[in-house]
Amino acid sequence: MTPLAEITALEARMGRTLAGEERVLAQAALADASAMVRAFGLPWPDPAKAPDVAVAITLAAAERRTRNPDGYRSEMQGSYQYQLPASTPAGVALTDGEVRLLRSAVGVSGLFSVPMERLGGSL
Hints:
By secondary structure, the protein is mainly α. The protein has helices at residues 7-14, 20-40, 52-67, 96-105; strands at residues 74-77, 80-83, 117-118, 121-122.
């Protein structure tokens, strides 16, 4: 399926043009992120019909993967140290907030009602 967002939108978000291996990685990240977003939302075979929030979440997940392809949580050199929170998703995984936004956009809530039948009659 076609990714829900274009590589040019990801480049605009990152503030630079992607080339070579990084561009290939970014295109794969967009495809993977689109698959994750569709899994929690709807299939959206035509990306133009996907809601803006689905496209934004796709771009956010793809950007995380492109900026940090190896999923590092921390780095240190000399007195410099940088660490991401343990709750930060790695790769194209979606955050709990992103999943809630997607489900809200498609009208899916956490509670469901299921009709049940017993011995041929409704309960």
